[in-house]
Write a structure and sequence with these properties.
mainly alpha; 3 domains; 62% helix; globular; Limonene hydroxylase
């Protein structure tokens, strides 16, 4: 479907240029929302750069030949006639540029098209388009030419994680060293853009960039797991730990090794770092005399979990450090922090130490009712004597009527869905409490957020039918009649008829 271009609205480039902080810091939150957000198909909204990041890291497919043909033909027509620009804009708006970019660039390189016209067309798309996919196509076309001619435009667009990958590739096409620009961008983004840039910077880094990657460059808002092995290899982590590393390097080492121990599955984990066992052993050696705070405790805790499965010879060193008597007091003290990151760190430490934080989370929720992690933590820690207290607090604090506005095909991203995400954190643990928390389950069945509805279905499926409240079957019948998503409809129908949710 053709995406109308409202010429009175700013282009994406203009939007970003007008929001650039003068001090070179990261974009403010209001700049992250792009002018085309309301035009995205079906209201689907990914975190900036996430859709392309997932495709580049977890998709092994190839370009759709028919799509590539249509897009390339539209480019050729627009190169030859300005009258064909709108048709190209429409074609570019309807594709995922990341899956076609290599094929399109290869065809353009081998074509006999007027290269000056190709450049002008790419530049026009990059700086005047107000939809993200045409902008990406424009940047990729500029990437065929020396970046010195459009460096400022690329540096502006690259400040937003949605476009950083494309800008980084285009910036690399120059006669001079691109590292300074890539490093500057890497320090100005913190999501998928940071991941793409560090992966490129690590290929042949200068000593300064190598040090930055080890100390802080691997940290990002997506998952440190994506860059942990790169930081360990690039920064020669084992060798650094074999000397007298400063406190900052020790903290970085703990974060890197913790990420490598993760079983999230985003990467190969510790298997991606050949020197992982040695670095872990050296880190524990440092911790024997330098373990001071909860960051150290949590890193050793992660290593202990991994060592129990893979390196039993390291378990005693981990156990000795974790058993030191000052950790519980540090963890409890951290729960009083007004800084969210310090509170979360203390909360994780309490969990590792077996210290209940149920009351802390319930008190915290009274002042921060939309903190979904606290709802999950409270419900997860509740027992038979407290589960009704937790669900009752949720009924009191969450706007269940505003959540239960009717089913839709919504993914729940955005500030407007904060209550819905809180409900999601509450529903999952209720699988273990048959008959409890029905008002929350009922709200989930009528929520526009698909995850809420699916989670409510899973809770009821986990309960014996005899534990269902009297109104549950009727609520499911109503939900089934209103459900717009075929897969969710099938699960509801299977639940009502006693079949497995997934046939």
């Amino acid at each position: 479907m053709f995406v109308k271009r409202r010429r009175s609205a700013p282009s994406i480039f203009e939007h970003l240029r007008d929001h650039l902080p003068a001090d070179g810091s990261m974009l403010p939150p209001d700049a992250e929302t792009l002018p085309d957000q309301d035009d995205l198909p079906d209201g689907v909204l990914w975190a900036p750069g996430a859709k392309d990041g997932v495709l580049t890291h977890h998709w092994a497919g190839s370009a759709d030949t028919d799509e590539a043909d249509r897009l390339y033909d539209a480019i050729v027509a627009a190169v030859k006639s300005r009258l064909a620009y709108d048709a190209l804009y429409e074609a570019a708006s309807e594709v995922s540029t990341i899956s076609l970019v290599d094929e399109i660039q290869q065809r353009l390189r081998s074509s006999e098209l007027d290269q000056e016209a190709v450049y002008r067309l790419g530049h026009r798309l990059a700086v005047t388009a107000r939809h993200r996919e045409p902008v990406k196509l424009g940047i990729s076309m500029l990437g065929l030419f020396n970046a010195d001619h459009h460096r400022d435009e690329l540096m502006t667009l690259g400040r937003h994680d949605e476009f950083t990958l494309f800008a980084a590739v285009a910036l690399a096409n120059r006669e001079t060293d691109a590292e300074p620009d890539l490093w500057e961008l890497a320090r100005q983004v913190n999501g998928w853009g940071r991941i793409h840039l560090v992966e490129r910077l690590a290929e042949d880094p200068s000593p300064e960039v190598r040090e930055w990657i080890l100390r802080e460059g691997f940290r990002n808002e997506v998952m440190n797991e994506y860059l942990a092995a790169i930081a360990a290899e690039t920064g020669d982590l084992a060798e650094r730990l074999d000397g007298e590393p400063d406190h900052e390097v020790l903290y970085a080492a703990g974060d890197i090794l913790s990420a490598l121990c993760s079983d999230i599955g985003a990467t190969g984990g510790m298997a991606d770092y050949a020197d992982g066992r040695r670095a872990s052993s050296l880190f524990l050696g440092q911790m024997r005399t330098r373990a001071l705070d909860l960051r150290h405790f949590l890193a050793v805790h992660e290593l202990h979990r991994h060592a129990e499965q893979e390196w039993p010879e390291l378990v005693p060193a981990c156990s000795e450090i974790l058993a030191r008597p000052h950790w519980p007091e540090l963890a409890r003290r951290g729960l009083d922090s007004t800084e969210d990151h310090e509170f979360r760190r203390a909360d994780r430490a309490c969990t590792a130490l077996g210290i209940s934080t149920l009351r802390v989370h319930m008190e915290r929720l009274r002042s921060k009712p939309y903190e979904s992690s606290s709802w999950f933590a409270a419900t997860e820690q509740a027992d038979a004597s407290t589960i009704d207290e937790v669900t009752g607090l949720a009924v009191e604090l969450l706007p269940l009527e505003e959540i239960a506005t009717g089913p839709a095909d919504e993914n729940g991203i955005g500030a407007g869905y904060a209550p819905h995400r809180c409900l999601d954190g509450l529903l999952q643990p209720l699988e273990n409490w048959p008959g409890r928390g029905w008002p929350l389950i009922a709200a989930g069945l009528a929520s526009p957020m698909i995850r809420n509805r699916n989670q409510s279905i899973r809770v009821l499926a986990a309960w014996d039918r005899s534990a269902w409240p009297a109104e549950a079957a009727g609520a499911l019948d109503t939900a089934l009649a209103r459900e717009p998503v075929a897969q969710v409809r099938d699960r509801m129908r299977n639940l009502l008829t006693g079949r497995p949710l997934e046939d």
